[in-house]
Predict the structure.
Amino acid sequence: MTGPVFVDTNILVYRHDTSDIAKQTQADAWHKFLWHRRLGRLSFQVLQELYATLKQGRGASLDPATVRGIVANYLQWQPVRIDAGVLRRAWVVEERFRLSWWDALIVAAAQASECPILLTEDLQHGQDLNGVRVVDPFAAPQLSPREVLEQP
């Protein structure tokens, strides 16, 4: 096993997005895999984005109490705080890899939480960002999360 996996907002949103059943199914498989093995990690930035997106009703009609419950459950995933150290890391990542500021913050938070894997569809699958490998969970839907993580 590769260690903890940092999960970007889009993957968590797809789990509740009924407009794309294939992505919802894949996101749910990853969620169950990470939850069962206690490997999921995220940041408070991810939780804020998740709350705002689900509250807007993307792909699902969820009431505010349900959205708050979903976000509160992810507090068990040891959210990384965006502090001065993460900001400094993000500046380096932003410049070195020419990422958007928000993506650089996600990568910096993954680095700070010592996650060798970043689960996202927003960056290039397989890319190595200073020791964090990008995995797009939708790039090989025929593979289970375990099979994807065991790939070099």
